[in-house]
Write the structure tokens for this entry.
Amino acid sequence: MRRSRTRAVIRLALAGAAACAMSAAPPPAQLRPGAGLAPAGFAQALAPWTFAFPRDHGPHPQFRQEWWYVSGNLDAASGERVGFELTFFRFALQPGAALAPEPAAASAWRTREIYMAHFAIADVQRRRFRFARKLSRAALGLAGAQAAPLHVWIDDWSLEGAAEAVFAAPWRLRAAQPGYELELTLQAQAPPVLNGEAGLSRKSGEPGDATYYYSIPRLSVRGRLIREGHPLGLQGLAWLDREWGSGGLSAPEVGWDWFALQLNDGTALMFYALRDRDDTRDPHSAGTWVEAAGRSRPLSNEEVSIEVTDHWSNAQGTRYPALWRLRVPALALELNVRPVLADQELRTTPDYWEGAVDVSGARAGRSIAGRGYVELVGYAPERPRHDETGVPGRLGR
Amino acid sequence: MMPTLRAASVRHLLRHPAQLALALIGLTLGVGTIVAVDVATASSQRAFELSLQAVNGAATHQITGGPRGIDERLYAQLRTQAAAGVPLRFAPLVTGYVTVGERTMQLIGVDPFAAAELAGEGRVAAAPDPATDGVEGLRRWLTEPGAVVMSAAAAQELGLNGRFDVTVGGVRQRATLIGRIADAGPGLDAALLTDIAQAQEWLGAVGRLSRIDVRVAGGAPDAALAWLRAHLPADLELHATRAQARETFAMTDAFTTNLKAMSLLALLVGAFLIYGAVSFAVLQRRATLAVLRALGATRGEVLAVVLGEAAVLGVVGSLCGVLLGVALGRGLVGLVSQTINDLYFVVTVNQVTVPVSGVVAALCAGPATALAAALLPALEVAASAPQLGLARSVLETRAVRVARALAAVSALLAVGAGLIAWVSGRSLLAGFATLFMLLLSVAAVTPAALRVLAQAAARLGARLSPVARLACGDIAASLSRTGVASAALGMALTAMIGVAIMVESFRESLREWLIHTLRADVYVSAPGPAEASQRRLDPAVIRALLATPGIRDHSESRRVEVASPRGALDLNAVRLAHASYAALQFTQGDAAHAWPQFARGAILVSEPLAWRLGLAPHDTLTLTTAAGPRAFAVAGVYREYGNDRGEVLMSLGTYQRLWADEAISGLGIYLAPGVEARRAVGELRAAAGGRQALLIRSNADIRALSMGIFERTFVITRVLYWLAAGVAAVALVSALLAWELERSRELAILRSLGLTPRGTALLVLAQTTFMGVAALAAAIPAGLLTALVLTGVINRRAFGWQIDLHLTPAQFTDALWLALGAALAAGVYPAWRSARAPLAQGLREE
């Protein structure tokens, strides 16, 4: 899902553009949803894709945007609990090869792609949530992605796959922010699961508003968190999401609630509830149910009901859902989802909530528990054009 | 008694408005000049700082490299290695200069992502609405060829919209204005922002960075900086941003110190005016004050009233002076920044900064000067016995005593000035102290000299006519009035003559040096201001140029700035044509030994550099090469007027080997016999084709150009010295006017004894002219001495130059005109008045 992360990418790219003293940029080409968001020249997610790994772990530069998303819940030997999220976004500004006036005199800084990454840690015992962001051009080795073996990185943050083509080959993840350095080894417990129609995930009635989308719902994790200089050994379970496409957000959609839940009987549930402008659920909302053996089945909008039973508001008054009851009658599944920390909001551009959650409930009458991650986008108001100092964006001021 | 005294004081001042006005004008001009220089200097400095802060203003440090800049791979390494444990943020910059129309602008290539990160998260939030204009702006910024952004003000001023041409290193490029910064501060007025990739391509600096800005973001800054230092290659340097900016602006120190000294001179002359005005006001009231003293006013009260008048005068004059100074400063800013652009670095001043400290200093200096100037007459009148106060003769007797004492003081000052110059070694400040003491010494000796001259003239004149004797004798007898006026004039004339001789000597030295140094027939260089390392000739163009027929030989040079433990130094690496060797005039070391050492890797240093760093042959100078610091032997010191910071001369081979830089900045071309320079210039231009716009100039053109720059840099000196001269002229006019007016009774008696109205007028004019000439006579030897101090002490200490003294009659003409003009101006009105005044009225005043 998170196709609308396109929008997040756009925003963050813009934050960079602010630095380019763009506050007085020329009259905008309308980037409103559906208004030319996928300019000619980019490939579109229209027909089913022939997935092949590890090729599809790597980048798809013919599409405008894509992301690599890893989140997980980890435990230390001491009983401490840590949640993490690391996401890399690729965004192409123009189709085709990088531009240059003459190849001989081309600067290595020339690029048509930018990368962004978010890294968040939920330090549950200390009731602390910390995040950092990186934004860079794909040039000079500062940021980029490659397949076989997978390597996606910005500066010293990276996600690396193994050279071997087997799904169980270990991946490495590395990211750091002041006070928290994370180094993990990830190992898929089962092959990737294709979401939607064999990996083609439609987000609206518009044909171009679709992505190719697969997940690895269960990766075993071992590694360590260096917290303020002190290493903490960790192990647990992570979730990988991969998605690429060239489309945008369909007109009435304003945001989404996304659930990635790993249950302790080996099953997993992914569901994204798209919200329309009138605060109703969009009929294109969908999900995937994954059996312990790795078999999966799509979940349609009608099959899943979500009831919000509590809310949390940040200091600015933005109100997020904070307690849910999910019901999937077809699976005889009833789950209560509760954040491990109330404040897991990433205050960036735009603000969104992405946090570790606990799951409890029943499946076919038997009690069940689990953990997971929830993402809530589109709740925070648009950031004003001027920050609190009243100084409009300009170079380094 | 005080109210009566005060009332008398106010009444008197109000009854003599012209006198009051002249004193105020003098002080206003003096204070105004000081403030103006301060405003002009501070505005240039502020503009320079703002232009530095305009980009990555949050940076605390910067990494700078050698002539070729910094390898961009280092930046990528720093980013990937400086993990979260090191709280450092980095932003790369590629800078250079471009010409847009007639205007030189700084081209600043930034990476917007790194710049935003350096600025900090909070500021990034100031983005425009991402959903509407963001991606399109960023897409154009990163992918549109020639995309640039500039301040809305600059775009409007230049009339730019959409696509336009810029010239970078002589090559025309197409730019597209994709954004205007609506509320850009003045720091961006001369900046053209573009993507770092575009800047590298335009500037021919692909793979290189001009600098890396660094921000220590919290944490332990010392540890972070230590980490950074450990990760920097040997040829890179890490500086605190502020220190770097200070150091760069400090280049102009000698220049701005000279300006300040000139402005102080104006105030000093203004002090004489105050002295003249106050002492005259006191003289006119001696009778009143004596009566009041007899009626019980104490000495302290008289002193307080006189000093009070001076203080009020000082405050009012200073306030007017500050206003005038700010206005004058606006005019002066252009001259100061022009000089800085010609000599040091590119700065565009669009905003006038009025420095509070300067204004406060001027507001203190004005009244202080007025009080100091009034102290002597105030003490004098307060100390007089009441009955003697009524006698004019007592005053004149005392004036003669004072003049004698002052002559002694003058001698002491002169000796003191000599001693200071002798002892102080290298201090520029002491040099200026010498100069001011010398000028004061001239002022102090003038009254005595005037008296002696007037008495001698009177004796001589007695043989011609009694009137001539009378005219000269009167000057000697009225020393209390005539002395002050001629002292002020004498000092101003001295300064004027001194400066005129210095400028002319400098000009001649430069002219001779240029003739001697410019040996080649045609010079080729890449156009552009400062930042020498980016001025280079396209190798293909060099080949084409050298293939032009009619070339006998050529020199090559590469001008760059290199780092050293003693700050950044200008380096000129040369491969000299055979005939070029003779162009260097050694002031230390000799050609026979120096050149072989030079060929083996030793360096030569120019005179200003040798002076600044205290270098002599056999010393060593450490420079930061591409492989780190390396000591070079100094083989000789040569004369050079082209660069007041001085430069290092090195063989091109040595430079290329140690700095791995093959670029060439300029060529000196020797033509075969019979080939005309003008035609060769045309052919060379044709050979360069449209590939690179080059500056191709004949020897004569370069000389004319250099002299033009020289004249421009001295414009401001001239402006200031005419201001000082103006104050002196006002002083003379006011003192003489007052004196002549006071003598109307005396003149009436002369007329009643048979002197014709025409004769009276001539008498008055003759007297003022005599004083002007006397002041000039005193000023000529003193001016010569001042010129010696200016060239031998001030210029030497400021820049390290040795200037040969050149004397021509023209150097004295300005002073002559000033002396005669002021004297005549002072005489005309009293002459006209005394010639026309009804006799009876004049006599009645008895």
User: Anything to note?
Assistant: The longest helix of chain B spans residues 299-343. Residues 121-133 of chain B have pLDDT under 50 and may be disordered. Chain B touches chain A through 75 residues (CB under 8 Å).
